[in-house]
Amino acid sequence: MEFSLGGILRTTSRSESENAFFRHFTNRKLALIEFWVRFETTLEEQRQKELQEDNSTLHTLPILQTCWGIEAHAREVYTHNIFVAFQREVVAARDHRHVKTIEQVGDIRTTSIADLSGRIRVVCYNTNTKVAQCTCRMFESLGILCSHIIVVLKNDGCNEIPSQYVLHRWTKMAARHLSYDANGNELEGSSTSLSPTMKKLYSETCSQFSSALHEAKHCEDKMKYFHKVITDALAHLRHTGPFDEQSKVQEFESFIGTTFPSIIKIHPPDVANTKGSGKRLKRVQRRPLAKGKR
Question: Where in the numbering of this chain does the SWIM-type domain appear (predicted)?
Answer without folding.
Answer: 125-157
